Hints:
With 174 residues, the chain is mainly beta.
Amino acid sequence: VNQANGLKERIKNRAVLLEKQNAVQDPKPFLFDANGIAVIPNWEERRETNAKLERLSPTGQPRSLSISAAPNGRTIASWRSRVTLPAGTYRFAAMAKAENIQSPQDPTGTGAGLRISGRERTNSLIGSSDWKLISFEFTIDQPQQVVEMVAELRGTSGTVHFKEDSLRIIKVRK
């Protein structure tokens, strides 16, 4: 009986998720300023394991998207935003701050950092650091593609803060 109830609950949750996904309209192409820079909007939480995700606005500090590792075990969690980009080479960049991040090696990415969904991360914040610029370069070969931007923490302890107004995409080449 408990297994049947669990299965019913998972099916119900999946139906809700599919309805949400189908309700999303085709995204419009992302708009860049004259310098080829665009701030990324509409960040959503994603947890693969237990973690604390918060939007923080401490007095005198920049507004940030934060991810804190669960107190025991491994954490994989992220803030994500989907954008539509034309063909070209781009840099996904942000100011990030690390607090006591510990992480085993992970082929997708170690510690905290930036990437796009489906790709391995080339940047990594481990330990503690003040605000520093991190970035991830990628190329879109198709005429237009929806890309999911990922600001994440993969670790066993610590917290990362991503300065919200610094999460941006920069055109490198057309």
